[in-house]
Structure formats: structure tokens, C-alpha cells
Amino acid sequence: MNDRAAGFPELLERFARAAEAGDGNAFAALFTADGRYDDGFFGRHEGRESIAAMLARFQVGGEAFCWQFAQPVLAGGTGYATYCFSYRSRESESRGELVIFEGIARLTLRDGLIEHYFEVFDRGTAFTRLGYAVPRIGKLLARYADAFAQGEAATAHRAYRAGRLGAGA
């Protein structure tokens, strides 16, 4: 493992500790000035000020956060890790309940800082643990599905698909 790769687990640990402490300044300092954070609940945030404000929103819906990263891998300037994330809910449907789910994070790094954080997790599991009613879960998942279908990744994939399989496929 080279020196840069050896520092990746430590970066993840600092990320987790700052998030758990609700320390928006320490958390945002892990990002480049123009850094982006694509959060599975709160959407995209760009720049340190916006990222710190997003972390403050965590505290509205929860407390006692715990972020456990595992299996970190760094390939070039991109790092990957699985994670298990939990917190105590402050939401009316699940006040005091432990909300726990797993996901995968992708971090693009530049000069030892996070340029882009992106995560994938099962929102349905998280919403169910929050005690949301099935119609509300369906509405939320439909909103995320529609946003994805109109976003960069799906748009690029449709173009790739058309080139690979033909326009009518």
C-alpha cells in the first residue's frame, strides 16, 4: 500500500468522527473549496459552506450518529468503502428508534481532500426504519427515481445504450 492509499482509511475515520460530532467546520474542511457532497437524503451540496449546512440538517432528524466504514480501497484518485450508518431518530414516527442501514461510498480525491463524495444505499430500508407509512415511502422513492431518470448518469447511459444497441432499443 503506498503512502497515499495508507492515508485513505484515516481520512474516512476523520470524516466519520466529524459527522458523528456534528462538527460542520471540521467536516467541510475535509473537502476541497469547490467540493461536492451527493447525499442520499438531502441531495447535492457544493462548497464547504453548503456541506457544513447539510451536516447541520442531520441534527434536525437525528442524534447519536455512528458511521462505520469498512473495506476501503483507493484506486488512483478515487476511493471506495462500504459503510454501516446509524442514528437515533428525532422524527415523530420513530422518535428514539435506532435507524440503521448500509451503503457504499465513492470519494474522488484531490490534493488529499475530498473533491466529490457520492453514496448509494437502500432508501426504502431507511424510510421503513424511520416508521414512514407505505404511501409516504412510495411518494419519496418515486421522487428519487424521477430525479435519477432526469440526472447526469441516466442521461449518459441512455446515450451509451442508443450507441450500443441502436436508437430504438
Q: Which residue ranges are poorly predicted, with pLDDT under 50 across at least 5 consecutive positions?
A: none
What count of domains describes the coordinates? 2
| Highest-level CATH class of the largest domain | Alpha Beta
CATH topology of the largest domain: Nuclear Transport Factor 2, Chain: A
Task: Assign the CATH architecture of the largest domain.
Answer: Roll
| Strand order, sheet with most strands | 2-1-6-5-4-3
Mean pLDDT: 93
- What class do helices, strands and sheet pairing give? alpha+beta
For the sheet with most strands, the description reads: 6 strands, mixed
The run of helices and strands is: HHEEHEEEEHHH
How many strands? 6
Helix share of residues?
Answer: 40-55%
Radius of gyration: 17 Å
Query: How far apart lie the N and C ends?
Result: 44 Å
Based on Cα principal axes, name the global outline. Answer: globular
Number of helices: 6
Strand content: 35-45%
